[in-house]
Amino acid sequence: MTRAARAAEAAGFDSVWVYDHFHPVPEPTQEPVYEAWALMAALAVATERVRLGQMCTCAAYRPPAYLAKVAASIDVISGGRLEMGIGAGWYEHEFDGYGYPFPKPSARIGLLAETVEVMRRMWTEDEVHFEGRFVTLDGALCRPKPLQEPHIPLWIAGAGEQLTLRVVARHGDYANFGGDVETFRHKRRVLEEHCRAVGRDPAEITLSRNFNVIIGATQAEVDERLAWYRSHFTPLVGEERTEKMIHTNYVASGGLIGTPEQVAERISGYRAEGLDYAILYFQEAGTDLTGIELFAREVIPALR
């Protein structure tokens, strides 16, 4: 993981991201998964320039004040390079396996909203008293404070139109939602409506999207990477589930699969709809850095 982060930094990427899971996705198998915030601390000292984020931390897995404390510490360790990604959580098997309650979506999003408010206050106030539906604090302290001012940037992930995007409108510095270009456009407009309802300028919120990436210099190389993907996942989740994942992650939902020219063109379609920040997932990055290097060498200059 540190090797991949250093390679991304050397290649010129702005940031490196991990996900907050305890079990592998999409199925719980015996493959290794590092705890996200332990990994954040490791990457904070293994890199020098690149920013560090999670897409995204599950609000239900750690008490909010504790999470704010951990994030503040890692912001200092990294020299002020932390991005705070946060979401409501969804992986029920993981909740059950680790003994966390898995309430209905409205309760998970309610906890998310209170978590975001608590974190912002922990990072900016000397002593925090908070009485919410899900969180109660009685004099919580957070020293050291984050280096970044006014606070660590908050990325709120999720696209639920009635609840999650309302939280983004009220508290988020960055939004993160997916889907094809038409879906992205629709979610952006819903977010803009929520911003107007709370009296906030939508331009204050940077729009981001996660992309799964399979990239090759030629179509033959793309086909080779697809063959590797199938050979990696079929023994774990079966052929039918693997093909469904390829269709969902790389075809139907606007993933990035193809040559550098095709990938740049796909991203440009989102850019025209307001995309400001792309977070890229290279499935093979743990063992093969050539996809990261090819993207940096040919796609990033094309987008600039």
Description of the molecule:
This protein is of the alpha/beta class. The chain has a single domain, classed as Luciferase-like domain (TIM Barrel). Helix content is 48%, strand content 16%. It is built from eleven helices and eleven strands. It has helices spanning 2-11, 36-46, 64-77, 92-98, 105-124, 164-171, 181-197, 219-237, 239-252, 260-271, 290-303; strands at residues 15-18, 51-54, 57-58, 84-87, 128-131, 136-140, 154-157, 174-176, 206-215, 256-258, 277-282. Strands 3, 4, 7, 8, 9, 10 and 11 form a seven-stranded parallel beta sheet that branches. A two-stranded parallel ribbon has the order 1-2. A two-stranded antiparallel ribbon has the order 5-6. Helix 2 runs parallel beside helix 3, helix 3 (64-77) crosses helix 5 (105-124) and helix 6 crosses helix 7. The two termini are 27 Å apart. The relative contact order is 0.11. The model has no long low-confidence stretch (mean pLDDT 95).
CATH topology: TIM Barrel
Tally the structural domains.
1
Total of helices? 11
What are the secondary-structure elements, in order, as H or E? HEHEEHEHHEEEHEHEHHEHEH
Low-confidence stretches: none
Q: In what range is the share of β-strand residues?
A: 15-25%
CATH class: Alpha Beta
Distance between the termini: 27 Å
**Averaged pLDDT:** 95
CATH architecture: Alpha-Beta Barrel
Report on the biggest sheet.
7 strands, parallel
The whole-angstrom Rg is 19 Å
CATH superfamily: Luciferase-like domain
Structural class: alpha/beta
